[in-house]
Amino acid sequence: PQASLLAFGSAVMTAGYTLVDGNGARLAGSPIAYILWLSVLNGLIVVLIVAARNGIGMAHHARRSWRRALVAGPLGLASYAMVVWAMTRAPIAPVAALRETSVIFAALIGAILLKEPMGHRRLTAAVVVAAGAVTLKLA
Known about the structure:
By secondary structure, this protein is an all-alpha fold. The chain is 90% helix and 0% strand.
């Protein structure tokens, strides 16, 4: 029961921020400006909170991880930008459904490249996500 409640809460939050992003980018008039402002403001808030809670630890972590951040940061931003841009060009629901299919790719990458077990739960979840995307396309 608790896992189901957490999953439902996660789904509600994902739907919420997806609607905020899609409508926010549309209202902003420029998805790129929306994404950049949101990223800068969000980044500043996160850095301030982490620095306040773990100042010196954050500095050590940043010193060790800056190379990975130089690769992962722009890739994550580009991925997010493509989704938000797509939501300004197409209905939000199908774009959101397509975005959630990343779960399928994550499961496959985990199983094939990382040699993680592909148990029946993971396989079932991937099939449910794929079925949801197909259902939205057919609707």
